[in-house]
Amino acid sequence: MGSAPEEDIDGFFTTARTAGRAEAVELPEGSYLTFLHDLDDPMLADVRGMSYEEFTADRYQAPFLRELLEYWDGLYAEPFVGLTSDGTVLEGVYPLPAEPVADATQAKAAEALLDVLSPEEAERLRYPFDAPDWRGWSNPEFVFHRNGLRLEDLDTEKQDAAMALVQASLSPAGYARVVEAMDLNGYLGELVDLPTIMNNRSYWFSLFGDPDPLRPWGWQLFGHHVALNFVSVGGRHVIAPVFLGAEPALTEGQRPPLFETREETALRLVASLTPAQREQAVVFDSVLDEAMPEGRIHPADERHVAGAFRDNRVVPYEGVRVADLDAEQQALVRAVVEDFLLLLVDDQRALTMADYDAQLGETWFSWYGGTDGSKPFYLRVQSPVVIAELDHHAGVWLSNRLPARFHVHTTLRHPNAGDYGTALARAWAEQTD
């Protein structure tokens, strides 16, 4: 691939984030504050005061973005299949409970939300459970699909009712993490003085199906660096796809760190690898390794493979088979996966981890980058029932042109039609016909 001179792509992205280089990428010295743009920089000044719709119209002028959205449109138009490792969907990997427990907590919170909305708002909020609009989520700050209601356009009572449904659906720690990601988006808006473009309520919220303790239904929340898809069906909860990120994710004590525990666990794991294990697990020595095939890094997605509109992607396994690691190393991989699933309430997380455990023989762990904590990295855990990724990114609203630990994207998917609760909903339909 060879190093190339840095070229501007559209004012927000440069080729530096995708160009292979022979030398290792080091983490930058200093905090994220070192990389704040001057508030008078045209990148910020030219859009200051714009509404989110005005900003979206401005961003749509960029040829790169128009090409990306056209590509996303093509992916969105495909019938849903689900992520796979080889193009073939595995059946029967998501069991429904034999004796489901009917928990009405989330359905009651959904009804409470509907009660405070006007009839017109409630109509805009709601979709059939099998609507394709599930797949319209995305994570940038500009708007692509407009699913449901925009939280910042609602009054406080209605915002609070929507967030109460999110809280009722997640574990306390998981809800705190989601709120922190939303608050970090607001913090970023404050740092760059663009609060009308990025704030802690610049998110779309929608409801799918009729809230019920057992029948399939769910909700969706998405916007900049936060995208959640929650489904309840037959006594099981699904919270996937998930996209959580932050810029900055590490704020020198200004905000709680979002992914620090997960990163520290992953670094303990890679530090424990034997030379033979490391040879398998470390797929590329750098996040911008020259050995990466053409197209492996995308200017927007960088290294992660399971982001927005990637519902049908074929992602071959790579790295080391987790079953070939020792018991302590397997426990560390499991801890990383469990942290990705922190959003689920305890009993539901236990059920989903049981699905993970059942597939241990076909679970793989891969790593790109240095393993001593001094360099940015990408990790992925992949099995028939999970794809979990963490990737360090270059700056978008900060000026670092190479990946850093203070801009992080994470994704969580359930391959083989597990996303959006699809496989479970099909099983429920077969069981109740």
Describe the structure.
With 433 residues, this protein is of the alpha+beta class. The protein has 2 domains: 26-74 and 247-421, no CATH class; 101-241, no CATH class. The protein has helices at residues 42-45, 52-59, 63-77, 105-116, 119-125, 156-169, 172-191, 260-271, 275-281, 327-340, 346-358, 422-432; strands at residues 126-127, 149-150, 203-208, 217-223, 226-233, 236-246, 282-284, 320-321, 364-369, 377-383, 386-393, 404-413. Strands 1, 2, 3, 4, 5, 6, 7, 8, 9, 10, 11 and 12 form a 12-stranded mixed sheet that branches. It is globular. Mean pLDDT is 95; it is low at 1-5.
In a nutshell, what does this entry contain?
With 433 residues, this protein is α+β, with helices and mostly antiparallel strands. It is built from 12 helices and 12 strands. A hairpin with a 2-residue loop joins strand 10 and strand 11.
Low-confidence stretches: 1-5
Total individual domains: 2
What distance lies between the first and last C-alpha atoms, to the nearest angstrom? 55 Å
Task: Tell me the total number of β-strands.
Answer: 12
The largest sheet, given as strand count, sense and whether it forms a barrel, is:
12 strands, mixed
Mean pLDDT: 95
Radius of gyration based on Cα positions: 21 Å
Helicity level: 25-40%
Shape: globular
What is the SS-derived class?
Answer: alpha+beta
Question: Oligomeric form of this entry?
Answer: single chain
Specify the number of helices.
12
Order of helices and strands: HHHHHEEHHEEEEHHEEHHEEEEH
How big a fraction of the residues is strand? 15-25%
